[in-house]
Every structure is written in C-alpha cells, then in structure tokens.
C-alpha cells in the first residue's frame, strides 16, 4: 500500500530513524500493526514534505489515508457480493437511482448531529459550497423532496465519505460503499418494515457468512422507557448514545457513564438496566405492554404494539428464527422515528475482535457493534426537512455494511486458497510455430465476432509454453492451437488446459464446440 | 431540476425581477434555453444566500451545478449501456480495478497542462491535500507504478470530476462517467493498439447509435509534420491545439489563429494546411512515407510505418470500413506519445449541433469534437512519471464517452415512446377481497423463496383495480390473484396483464408456471 521514492543520499539515515521511532512508539503503547503502518505513513509523508537534501522532489506514492484501490481479485469478489445483493433487491421489486457524489453543503447541514465534523468539504473554488455525501439516506430524502416523489422502492449502491479514524484491516474506510434499500410511502403499519428485515435475512443467508441474528427495537420504546425511568427529556439523546455502547462495554461501565458523566440518578440507571437486559420476541412485547411502568408511556405502547404486529409478519415471512426484540439496541443517527434494527454475525472466527475505542473521534454507524453487517430503521421526518411545506414522506430502509462483508469474503477466499478468476476468457488462441500472428488474429476475430470471450498474445512469435502458462495462471479453460498442418487441414487443435487433452475440431464447428464446453 | 422554497412575502416580487433580468439577458445575447436555466439557477442561489425578509432560512433544493440525479428510467438505460460495454471488455479478456474518487493532490499535479485549473480540490481539513480525480488514466498509472505492475489489460468504469462549464443538454457534466479500457505492457508494435480500435468498433456497433467513423493519427506524425513545416520546437504544443480546432472551425480561421495569434509564418501555416486536409488509409501512409518533405522527419516516418502496420491488423479485424487515417486529428492531452484516435457519430439528427465555444474555459476532451463518443491513444511515458526509477510501462487505451451515449439513448427512448421498465418484477400477488393480507404475504413469501421476482401492495385491503393499475404502469406481466374460493380450491388465479386472460393454476405448480411464462 505504500511506496516512497525520490530519496537519494539521505534515505538510509532517515529510514533507520523512522524504524527506531516506530519501535519507540510501539514499546510505548502496544500499537497494532495497522497503527504502526499508519504512523510510518505519517512520518514518511512528513519526510516527503520536508524534501530530500538533493533538491529532488519527494513524492509519496500512495492512496489517500483511509482509502484503497481494489485489485482485480478484490473486484471479482466485490462483483459477486453486489450481484447477490442486487438480485435480492430486484426480487423485491426495487428500482435504482443515483445521486452526485457531492451535495450542496447546506443539504447535509443539521442531519448528522455530532458526526457532522466527519463530513468532507470541498475547497471553495468559487461558486457553490459543496460536501461529499456522508450517507445515501440524506441524498435520497433530498431527491424525493426535490422531485415531489411520495412513493418509491429503490436501492442505491454507491460510495460515501467520512473523515473518520480508519481501521482498514477491519473494513473501516474513509471511502466506503453503502448499499441501501428503502421504501418510501404512506402504507399500512409494519408491512414495508417487515420486508426490509426479510431482505436482510435473505442477503445474509445467500452470502453464506455464517450464523447471524437481527436485533429489533423501536425509537418510541426507547424514549418511552427513558421517560418512565425518570430520564429528563433533554437527556434522552445522550443517554440513548450511552445505551448504544452496551455492545462494547459491560453494563457496569455503561451505568457508570450514565451516573457519573451524564448525571443520571442511580435509581433511574438501574431501572434502565433492567429493561435493556431484556430480549425476546412477540411475547416480550406483550409482557411489556402489561408492565406497570412501561405501559404508562403512550409512546412505548405504540412502539410495542407495532413490534407485535411486526413479529406477526415476520412469522409469515419465516424469518423469526434469526430476529430478536432487544431493548438495548439504540442506533446512533438522529433521524430514526420508529422501528430500528441491526444485523450481526454471531459465528466465532468471523466476527472481528472488539474494537478499542480509545476515545476515537466519531465512532460511526459501522463501528456501532462488533460484527454488525446491516442496519436501518424508520425515518418518517427526514423528507419533510427538505420539503418547502414540510410535507412528510414516511420511509423505512436498510443499509448493508458491504465493506465488512468484502473483508470477510476476502479472508475466506484467502483462507481456502480458492482461485478467484478475474477474467471470463473461454479460450486462448495460440500457436506453437513462428510467423502465424496473422492467422492467430484471424481466428480470434472469428471468435470475438461470434461472441466468444477470447484472448491472443500481443507478440509476433510467443512461445507455446508461455501461452499455456498464461492459461493456467488466469484459469482459461481452453486453448485453440494453430499450426501449418491445422491450417492446411482446415482444423484447430482444441486443448483442455485442465487435463491437457487435445482434439482436432473443424474450423466451422469451433464456435459451437467452445460454447458447448464452457457453458 | 430546481425548486426553491422558504420565500414568503417577497417571492412574487423577486420572481418577477428574476424573469425580467432573464429576459434582458436573453435579448442581450441570444442565450440557449440551457444557458437561461443556468442563469436562473445562479440568481436563485444568490436570492437564497441573501435570505428572505421574513428571517426564514432560504434554501435551494437542487443538485450542485453541473451534476444530476439519475432517476430509475435513466438508470435502466445506463445499466443497459454499461452491460453492453462491459460485455465487450470481458470478451476481450479484461479485468477490472477501482481506485478512490480522490487522490493526493500531488498525484494529479503536472499531468493535465492547462486543464489543471479544472480540478476539484478538497478543503484542507487537516492531513493530506486531496483532489477529486480528473480522469481514470492518471490513477491507473499511479496504480501500476505503486504496485509495480508491468502487464495488465483492465477496464475501469467510474465517475470523474471537472470544474468545467457544464452543457448538460448535450451530455457535458461536471460529474460524469468515464469508461476506460487500457492495455499496459511491452508488446510487439500495434497489436494492442489495433485491439483498442476493434473494441471501439464493436461497442459502437452494438449500441446501435447510427453510423460512425474512427479517426486515427499519431503524435509522432504531427510532431514530424510541424518540424518539416518549420514550426519552432517550442510551438509544437500550441500549434497542435490550434489544429485540434479543425473540427469546429474552418481552415481559414485555424490558419488565422496560427499566423495572427501564434506568430507562425504564412508559408508554414499553408504547408500544415495541405497536410491536415489529408485523409485516407494505408495508402496515404505509404504516400507520405515517399513525400519529399515528410520523409525528412524520422519521427514522422516511425509514426507512418506504425500506421501502415496498424491498418494491416485492422484489415484482419475487419474494421477498416469505419477507420480513417486523418492528419487533422490532434487530441488535447499532453501524455499521448504515439497512435491517437477518436470515434465520431456521423449520422445526421443524432450528432448535436456545433457548440459555440465563446471562449469557454478549458474545452475538455469531451468537447473536442461534435459527436465524439470515444477517444484514446498510446501513452508510454505516464507510468514512468510515478516510478521512483522512471521505469516505463508502455500503455494504450480508449475511453468511451458514455455521457453523450446516455443522452442519445435517452433521446431515442423518448422519441420512440418506448416503455422503459425500471423493475424486473414478474408477478404481483393481489386479491379482490378484504382481509387477505396474510394470505397474500404467505404467497409472496413462497415466490420470493423460490427466486421469483414478486411484489405485494403494502395495504391491508387494496382495491383490485389499483393493484392491476400498478402492474400496467410498471410493466409487470402477471398477477397472481387470491380469493376465498382459490384458497379453498388450493389454486391461484394467474392473470396475464397484456390480454387479461385468467387461468387457475394449482398452488404447487405456480412457481414453474410463472418461470415458464416469464422466461
């Protein structure tokens, strides 16, 4: 990922200085390899900025912090994952849209709370002030309001940008894909919400990432719970974000934060503690509707009634085996107004280790939970923020955490030493003899024109061995070999790379034979 | 594309002021509709910035200048175009990669000559200085150098960013897709170059955009020509960019610019004029190799010899009917070192009107020529600019001007009133009776689980008519209708939307029947 050049006389000196400083830092704080890499990158950048002592411009050959290139193998995996997900979205009747990578800065203002500091702004080069999109939900809401759309079921797969602390080994980047499915429109309660969960279930099953569960809760239940536990109204949000840490911290620490940092009474915290330890299904929702305290909150009752209804649809959709009503689920973003959910991988060995937060600025949605691979909820107010008359368009949606899924799939591919093909070439047109370039080009033209995926080496007289080696390396299954004799006989020698079998095929039958063998 | 709100008491006043100013501007300079739209947008922005007199925040609901959303219909067209192009790239054995949307500012520095002023920079928010990518070629070269790759055949489809004067009605945006295919590696002359042209030919044929031709030239021939015509070395580049205008200006004007603005002698200009009017094929290359003046330049001879060889391969590829050797072709970018080419649509009615340049800053590649839909060439030096030891990796590639193609395809779809489907739903699960929501959900679950693309209305008791209307509007071919009787009989009434035929299908056979009818 990193290469430096332009250093001449001073490189050895600076190099050893870098290493010793890294050692020092390492011994100091027990950094991870990824952290060391980043420290090295920073130092090398600094070095590059200082310039060498030979006056030559110092240049760091790298991608920006928190970003990466996708090589062909990674692209092959990425395309496979996208294909599975898009297929599911289409099975559920979704259309797709696209929006620009940047929006007017104003469009993003006031939508992300504290996380706004993580937005990338563009330089003011005259004209409008712009920012890179932070998610796909706000642009979607802007799109609906701008085009006065009140009904749509759409997916959107695109990159979003956050100036967050990257943790690339765990699939957390500053540039990363989001993969969103949303249903906008005024419908009967919980039907679209249930379909979103069905989609998450189908996708995680089909991607075969191991066992998972989907946690469900409702913003109104959380708010109602805070109210009946005696949390002052103005502390709902901050207490909610503390509850959100239950994934990463034991209850004792969460309680401490509530009491010591956020000034909640011990009694209120304990009451919250009782509730947030509850998990169940429709039965739990029913029990809480009878709960003497909880049932005092109208909001909570509305949420609980919807959870009951939701579970009745989830039963019909045959997905209750993986869905759990969990009162500790409290997603970060401000715009949720109803049902919220989050999917987690539960299989050991797949879920990455617990992240040391170290007061890292802006732990974003992706880091909400260990092994979290999807999340979403209902946001009925967001579109209204963009509408001139404040007209609301109720929305519910889900975002698939595709980068983490890529990471897992890449690790799996490496682990099982599975050969990932990066091209789809069916046949290589080759020759063992010299001066047959034109004949090879003629044959490959015939194949291309017939829709066959075919390659030819860009050499006048390549060695047969190097042509065959290329096939082995890139998984090309067939070789069409030409020689003087074959040309005279009007045939082509078709070789199967896997078993080295060769058979003469008449030139007129070649296309059909290749299609037959590679279908 | 534009909506403004937040204006209360003052809106009528400001509105009429805007209109009168636009009228004034219009009468002033005979603006196009697109230009007026942009002027209006600017004024409304200004209005929004000034704020209303009621203290309410003024907000313009729009996408940034020069950008657009893609609605589902546009996405359907976009996906069709991409699919054709990607299919062709894969037929020729290409892998794909992806790079970040921004690069270190330094990576882009010194690669685009004058056009550098069109690069979008990110705001300095601490850390590295970043810029949005301006094309896919420079990131590709950076990728090759960084990963020490010396051989690859790759395509890359992604958005690039230019702070250019947008002309959106003609498909010129500030955010737009590029669609690049490149072959990197040390190979025998003109074989990969010929394949790039073959690919352009195949794509333009398959997209069915009407007749086209592909102009070919060579940087070395241009430079040699300038040398033998007496152009001073330091004026090659500026004279080259004047020649580049022959697409849009008559020779007299081009000559005037050479003589009056760039200080070339009349004789030299006339000599250039004779050469740049030449068009032909292999025969022209042969004739010029015998030309007493041209043959004095070693560079020109090398270029001409390669053009001859190129045409011999193009003959084998069966594409010479559309390719013409044209000495007036002079592409703008600095990094080309050998063969250059450009594809143009020639059919009347499709190619947009000649663009009034009006001294617009930075006419970019996309605007090089009326109807230009693809371009590229050989750039053997670019990767070396990134390599610490200056090691060169010869490259040749082509970029498909996909935005212009989208525009044409959209116009075509509109013109023939062709219905573009935006979903792939095969069947709608419906009911004519009340209280069958659960039964509808059960059936749609069966269908989804069997891989059928199916929809159900998110209403407890939707009207049959509205369910059928939805099918007509979105082109869903089949409706599976449930009623008490059907449930009792264990059947589903399958209705063909097109002809309203209905037939009872036993529930167990439904999936197969839907597959059969929609395959």
Shape of chain A: elongated
Based on helices, strands and strand pairing, what is the structural class of chain A?
alpha+beta
Q: Unreliable segments of chain A (pLDDT under 50, ≥5 consecutive)?
A: 1-29, 49-56, 348-370
What percentage of amino acids of chain A are in beta strands?
A: 15-25%
N-end to C-end Cα span of chain A: 38 Å
* Total count of helical runs of at least 4 residues of chain A: 18
The overall pLDDT of chain A, averaged over residues, is 86
**Share of residues in helices of chain A:** 40-55%
Work out the oligomeric state of the chains in this entry. homodimer
Biggest interface, which chains? A-B, 94 and 94 residues
Q: How many strands in all of chain A?
A: 18
Strand order of the largest sheet of chain A: 3-6-7-13-12-11-8-10-9
Keywords, separated by commas or semicolons:
homodimer; 519 residues; alpha+beta; 5-stranded mixed β-sheet; elongated; disordered N terminus
């Amino acid at each position: 990922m990193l290469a430096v050049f332009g250093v001449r006389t001073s490189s050895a000196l600076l190099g050893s200085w870098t290493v010793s400083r890294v050692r020092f830092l390492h011994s100091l704080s027990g950094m991870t390899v990824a952290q060391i890499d980043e420290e090295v990158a920073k130092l090398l950048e600094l070095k590059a900025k200082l310039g060498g002592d030979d006056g030559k411009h110092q240049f760091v050959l790298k991608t920006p912090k928190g970003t990466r290139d996708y090589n062909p193998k990674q692209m092959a995996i990425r395309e496979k994952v996208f294909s599975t997900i898009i297929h599911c979205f289409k099975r559920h009747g979704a259309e797709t849209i696209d929006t620009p990578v940047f929006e007017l800065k104003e469009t993003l203002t006031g939508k992300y709370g504290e996380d706004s500091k993580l937005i990338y702004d563009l330089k003011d080069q005259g004209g409008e002030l712009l920012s890179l999109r932070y998610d796909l939900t706000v642009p979607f809401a802007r799109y609906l309001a701008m085009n006065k759309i009140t009904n749509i079921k759409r997916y959107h797969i695109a990159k979003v940008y956050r100036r967050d602390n990257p943790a690339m080994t765990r699939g957390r980047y500053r540039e990363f894909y989001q993969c969103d499915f949303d249903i906008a429109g005024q419908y009967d309660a919980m039907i679209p919400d249930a379909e979103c969960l069905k989609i998450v279930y189908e996708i995680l099953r089909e991607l075969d990432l191991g066992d998972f569960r989907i946690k469900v809760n409702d913003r109104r239940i959380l708010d109602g719970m805070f109210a009946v536990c005696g949390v002052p109204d103005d502390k709902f949000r901050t207490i909610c974000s503390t509850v959100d840490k239950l994934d990463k911290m034991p209850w004792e620490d969460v309680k401490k934060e509530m009491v010591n940092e956020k000034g909640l009474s011990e009694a209120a915290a304990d009451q919250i503690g009782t509730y947030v330890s509850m998990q169940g299904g429709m039965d739990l929702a029913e029990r809480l509707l009878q709960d003497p305290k909880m049932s005092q909150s109208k909001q909570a009752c509305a949420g609980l009634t919807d959870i009951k209804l939701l579970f009745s649809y989830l039963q019909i959709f045959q997905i209750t085996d993986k869905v759990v009503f969990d009162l500790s689920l409290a997603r970060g973003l401000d715009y949720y107004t109803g049902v919220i959910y989050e999917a987690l991988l539960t299989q050991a060995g797949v879920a990455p280790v617990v992240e040391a937060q170290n007061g890292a600025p802006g732990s974003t949605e992706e880091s909400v939970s260990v092994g979290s691979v999807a999340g979403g909820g209902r946001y009925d107010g967001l579109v209204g923020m963009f509408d001139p008359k404040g007209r609301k368009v109720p929305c519910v949606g889900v975002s698939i955490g595709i980068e983490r899924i890529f990471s897992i799939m890449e690790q799996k591919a490496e682990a099982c030493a599975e050969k990932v093909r990066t091209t789809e070439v069916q046949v290589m047109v080759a020759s063992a003899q010299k001066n047959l370039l034109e004949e090879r080009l003629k044959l490959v033209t015939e194949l291309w024109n017939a829709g066959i995926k075919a390659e030819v080496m860009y050499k006048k007289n390549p060695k047969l061995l190097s042509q065959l080696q290329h096939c082995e390396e890139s998984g090309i299954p067939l070789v069409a070999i030409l020689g003087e004799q074959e040309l005279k006989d009007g045939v082509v020698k078709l070789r199967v790379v896997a078993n080295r079998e060769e058979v003469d095929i008449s030139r007129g039958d070649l296309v059909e034979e290749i299609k037959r063998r590679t279908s």
